[in-house]
Amino acid sequence: MTLQDIFTQIVKKKSFLCVGLDSEFEKIPVCLKNTVDPVFAFNKAIVDATTVFTIAYKLNLAFYESCGINGWQSFEKTVKYIKKNYPEIFVIADAKRGDIGNTSKMYAQAFFEKSSFDAVTVAPYMGEDSVSPFLSYPGRFVILLALTSNKGANDFQFFENHQGEKLFEKVLKTSQNWANSGQMMYVVGATRAEMLTDVRKLVPNHFLLVPGVGAQGGSLSEVAKYGMNSQCGLIVNSSRAIIFADVTEKFAERANEEAKKIQLEMESLLKEYHILKII
Amino acid sequence: MTLQDIFTQIVKKKSFLCVGLDSEFEKIPVCLKNTVDPVFAFNKAIVDATTVFTIAYKLNLAFYESCGINGWQSFEKTVKYIKKNYPEIFVIADAKRGDIGNTSKMYAQAFFEKSSFDAVTVAPYMGEDSVSPFLSYPGRFVILLALTSNKGANDFQFFENHQGEKLFEKVLKTSQNWANSGQMMYVVGATRAEMLTDVRKLVPNHFLLVPGVGAQGGSLSEVAKYGMNSQCGLIVNSSRAIIFADVTEKFAERANEEAKKIQLEMESLLKEYHILKII
C-alpha cells in the first residue's frame, strides 16, 4: 500500500479513523460467547459495521496472545477476513516488537508473510538493526514508537541531552536515516496533542498513528490542530470507546453509531483544514 | 521461583547456562521434518539432551510467531514439557513486550497465566505502567532490556544527558523504583562485557540475562570477570551455537557436547570467582 492509497481512502471516506480491535475475550458480548470463535465473530461484526467510516484497523496482539492458540486463530482469521473483503483498508499489527536483526526478521515474516498486515508497530530501544528487517518489504510500513500516550512515557521518552534534545526527538531524527515516509510512520499519543507541534517540525510529511482518543482522554480537535499536514498525515485510533460502546446484541449497531460520530467530527476537521473542499 | 532457587541450581549444576530455543523452522534437522510437530520434537530433544548442564531455557517468540498457529502450538507444548519434566528450570519468554497498562496486563496474562513462564523480557521505552502489570505476579520476573548485544544498541541506549548519564543507566536506575531484585532482572549483552563494570555499580545484586555469547561473539570469561557477583548474578544465554551445532540426526548429541563445553568453562569460572568451593 502507498501513502497515496491511504490518502485516497481518507478523501473517499472523509475520515482518518482507525478502529482498534482490542477484542478482550472477557468483554465480548454474551450473545456471541457460544459461537465457535467468539472473538472472530465479534471482530467480523465490528468490521462490517464500521468499515464505511474507517480507513484502518489495528489489532493489538496482546488481546489475542492472552487467549493462547485460540487467540492466535481469531487473530489470523480477522486479518484474512479484512484483507479479503475490504482490501483497501490499512491493517496494522500493533505488536510493538523489536529484537536483534535475525530475530526481527522472523517477526517481519510473521506479520508480512504469514499474515498480510500493511504495517507493524515497532519499539525503537534496540536501534536500527532491530527495525530494518521490517523495511525490506516494499509497500509495508514500520510504525515506530516515538511519543506514547501513557503516563510512563515521561520516564524515558523525555530524557534530554545537553543540547535539550529529547529521546523521542532523537528517535524521530535518527530513524529518518532508515526509511522515508513511504515506509515509516510514527506513534504519537493524542494525550500529548500540544507536543505534535514539535513532532511536526521534525517529521512534517510522515503519517502519524495517534492512539489515545476516547477512553484515554485525548482530544481529536487538538490532534488535528497541531498534527495535520496537507495530506492529513494522521491516522487516529479509537478502540474501547467504539468496540465496547455496548455489550448487548446491539453492540455492532452502537459501534457503527460511535464510529459515525467520530467520522463526522473528522469530516468537519478535514474541511476546516482544507484537506476536503467545502462544497 | 525465587533468586535462592536459581542460585541453588547454579551450585547444583555448576552452571549458569541458559539455552535459547531459537528454533527456526527452516533450520530444524531434516530427520524431524516429517514428525507431527517438528519444532516441538526438536525442542524436546534439545531440552532432554542439555538440561543436565542448563539452569534456564529461553524461548524467543519471534521464531514461533513466524510459523503462525503451528508455531504457537509448538511454543505452548514446549513450555508445558519443560515445566512438567524439569520444574526446577527457569523458563523465560523472550518477548520484548511493553505497551500501555491495560495492554501489558494482557501480555502478562499470556505469559504468566495462559503459559507458565517464570520470566518475560520487556522493553523499557514506554516506562513504568508498561512494566508494572508484569510485576503483580509474585515469584515471576521481568527481565528489562538495558544494554543489548546488537549494533543498534548504539543508536539510543547511549544517549546521554547533561550529567553524562546514559539512557541505559537511566533505565537501570529508574526501574529499581518499580521492583527489587526479587522480581527484576536486566538484559545486558555479552558483546559489551567491559560495560558490565558500569552496570554492576548501579545494580550490584540483580541477576543479569546475558545474550551474545556464541554466534554473536561475546566472551564468557570477560562476562564473568566484569559481571559476576557473590550469587553469580549471571544467566548467560547461548542459542544457535548449541541448538544448531549439527543438523544431522546427531543434533541432540552435539547440542549436549556444546552445552557441556560451556558448562565446564562456567564451572571453572564459578570456582575462580569463589562461588563454588574448589575441592
Description:
Two copies of one chain form a homodimer. With 279 residues, chain A is an alpha/beta fold. Chain A has twelve helices and eight strands. Chain A has one domain: Aldolase class I (TIM Barrel), CATH 3.20.20. The first copy, chain A, has helices at residues 3-13, 38-50, 61-65, 68-85, 101-114, 128-131, 153-156, 167-175, 196-202, 220-227, 240-243, 251-272; strands at 17-20, 56-60, 90-97, 119-122, 141-147, 184-188, 208-210, 234-238. The mean pLDDT of chain A is 95.
Low-confidence stretches of chain A: none
E-strand count of chain A: 8
* Cα gyration radius of chain A (Å): 18 Å
**Annotation field: number of helices of chain A:** 12
Strand order of the largest sheet of chain A: 1-2-3-4-5-6-7-8
Query: How would a crystallographer describe the biggest sheet of chain A?
Result: 8 strands, parallel, barrel
Summarize the structure.
Two copies of one chain form a homodimer. Chain A is of the alpha/beta class. In chain A, about 45% of the residues lie in helices and about 15% in strands.
How do the strands and helices of this protein lay out in sequence?
2 copies of one chain form a homodimer.
Chain A: H1 3-13, E1 17-20, H2 38-50, E2 56-60, H3 61-65, H4 68-85, E3 90-97, H5 101-114, E4 119-122, H6 128-131, E5 141-147, H7 153-156, H8 167-175, E6 184-188, H9 196-202, E7 208-210, H10 220-227, E8 234-238, H11 240-243, H12 251-272
Parallel strand pairs in A: 1-2, 1-8, 2-3, 3-4, 4-5, 5-6, 6-7, 7-8
